[in-house]
């Protein structure tokens, strides 16, 4: 590495930006623009997934009653505005598919992986900018194909987001042919997009860290995105392989998953969950990392137990590969294998608990500022605890026998993916919005959105535990079919009304997001008094991020050390005085 | 408000008590963890909120604390694991089916349950077999082993009151046992999404006293075997 370049020449280079509009905003190779493109795309899918959920909730709360606006749907989806059972199966399937693959995953990995990795490690861009562009422009057709499924004959995929074979493998069983094939194709293309992204993130983190940015000076957001990228790189090919086999079963007459000629329906489940459980951690690890950044900033204090946080991320990333069978305790898999998966599943709760306690340790003795990102980050911790603890119930195979495929699972997964991931995403968007768009989001609207979301979110999902404990199965079109579910109708209606209010509250976020883009207060380079490298460059950063490559001198979370006039020490600020010796070894 | 409850509905099989017990144990343990963490969180948020003149406790962590909370969590989950493993093995283990269990074949297809009884000779595939659709009749206090076979897609045999759930997978022959302990009518439902009629794939389970069951058996006439 050469010595630091004189500032004049690169500064001029960075400011002169002669790219055409098309190259700058549409087919851009700039990681920041690509991050924002992913953000806009996945927010649209988040909205679509939400609308699908509202239709499901209508049917569950008011079974058989005409849905307001249902008259707009074609006869194949709703008859006289009443949702049809076959369309309900598509709703179940596509709500899950859109939310997991096109909303939460790109929001965490596509948006923040792209936006934050170069900016937080001091790199001018990704290692492979064109690969990065390809990654986004593969995700778009994948999304369009997935939407197209609603408009083909036979309706959209209806075998659940997990696409269990043989239901998904033979069109005779659902009446869905083209929809299911589009589902496979779309996910195969999206998988390719994710793999390209993952290659890029891994290479960038390994190779493009600024001088002084050692592994253990990386913020936890970058650690978690790095481990996540490794999981994506290893997990997505498994899904793609399984999907290609499924597509062949559907269209070419193979029998990988069809028992007639010796195929194995359970093979699909093994392949799907061997991808699917790492996927669960792909959907939560980046959230944990970004929440760590925000909590340390909000508490004005270094993260508690940085090293054990890193090791917890690593062990979650590793153990995530050996727990997939806990989705299959009742599947007919060898019960002895079930015991093995129970052990690994119980084990993975240990690193998760370590993270929660370290967040509490970070808050302890801090000076907590309740900014909107901080509110969301604290809500993340509170909700993730519930999602984690409810997971202990189904980790016990005999108890899982009772609650498997009930609303208890629905409650659990939404506490992790909505209470966890989505609260973290709202927090992260608010936190990095000024860097992305150069303007602040309105704190007043943000707080209102936070409180309404927090309240209605819990009113929707907490009672689902109770539904599940009474035995209420998932994916049931009309709960009044069963006598034992009839007393639960009132609770179902309560959940539905809360869900509508939860959905309506999201309009505040939409208004804040779009409105602040144009009318928000102009953001200074470092509005949150943070230590990260991304705050040392203008908001928004120019093409190339820095005129001069920054040099890193400090660990990531130096708040409240008393070594500077402010209460934070940016990672790139060189101090003349060495750190006080008494404090240095405290982190082990 | 009886539905806002953490209690399980009454169980009616021999192992329902074991499952309910592990549920309540986990409920208490996670309940304590929940209260400790959430109260701690809220308490810290209030106590350490930013006020003029507050100085933070500058620390990078504490290894003793890490060791304590890591080991408490690890020990707790190991205990839960040991408790669960025993019960699991007794219910679904390879050799768990009681020797005297009465066998009933369950042929499943979209969207119906066909229960095949061996008839008076106690053997399947003989002319006196009879089949009842969506109606399962059982004697009380008698172990029953269902032999699940699906003709088309995956279904799941699920009687909440007996705490039993087992997937029926096409191409596989899966056995699952349970023993009802209380007479009465119960519902059996499909727990695995199996198509547009999944929600109405329901059957009624009637648990009779032994005499009643014998009377019911006597009223049944052999059906021409469907296969």
Describe this structure in a few short sentences.
Chain A has 588 residues and is mainly alpha-helical. In chain A, 61% of the residues lie in helices and 1% in strands. In chain A, a hairpin with a 2-residue loop joins strand 1 (78-79) and strand 2.
- For the record, the CATH architecture of chain A stands as Up-down Bundle
Number of strands of chain B: 10
Stated plainly, the CATH topology of the largest domain in chain B is called Immunoglobulin-like
Low-confidence segments of chain B, given as residue ranges, are: none
Q: Tell me, briefly, the overall form of chain B.
A: elongated
Indicate the overall shape of chain A: globular
> Helix- and strand-based class of chain B?
alpha+beta
* Count of DSSP-assigned helices of chain B: 3
Given the structure, what is the number of helices of chain A? Answer: 16
- Helical content class of chain A: 55-70%
The largest contact between protein chains, plus residue counts on each side, is: A-B, 106 and 90 residues
| Strand percent estimate of chain B | 25-35%
Overall residue-averaged pLDDT value of chain B = 93
CATH superfamily of the largest domain in chain B: Cupredoxins -  blue copper proteins
Give the H and E element order of chain A. HHHEEHHHHHHHHHHHHH
Spell out the helices and strands of chain B N to C. HHEEEEEEEEEEH
**Main sheet overview of chain A:** 2 strands, antiparallel
How does the SSE layout of this entry go?
The complex is a heterodimer of chains A (588) and B (227).
Chain A: H1 8-15, H2 21-26, H3 31-61, E1 78-79, E2 82-83, H4 85-121, H5 129-148, H6 178-207, H7 220-251, H8 265-282, H9 285-299, H10 306-319, H11 335-363, H12 372-395, H13 397-403, H14 407-437, H15 443-469, H16 489-519
Antiparallel strand pairs in A: 1-2
Helix pairs in contact in A: 3-4, 3-5, 3-16, 4-5, 4-6, 4-7, 4-14, 5-6, 6-7, 7-8, 7-9, 7-10, 9-11, 9-12, 9-14, 10-11, 11-12, 12-14, 12-15, 14-15, 15-16
Chain B: H1 16-47, H2 63-92, E1 102-109, E2 112-117, E3 130-133, E4 135-139, E5 144-150, E6 155-159, E7 164-168, E8 174-178, E9 184-190, E10 202-208, H3 210-219
Parallel strand pairs in B: 1-5, 4-10
Antiparallel strand pairs in B: 1-2, 2-3, 5-8, 6-7, 6-9, 9-10
Helix pairs in contact in B: 1-2
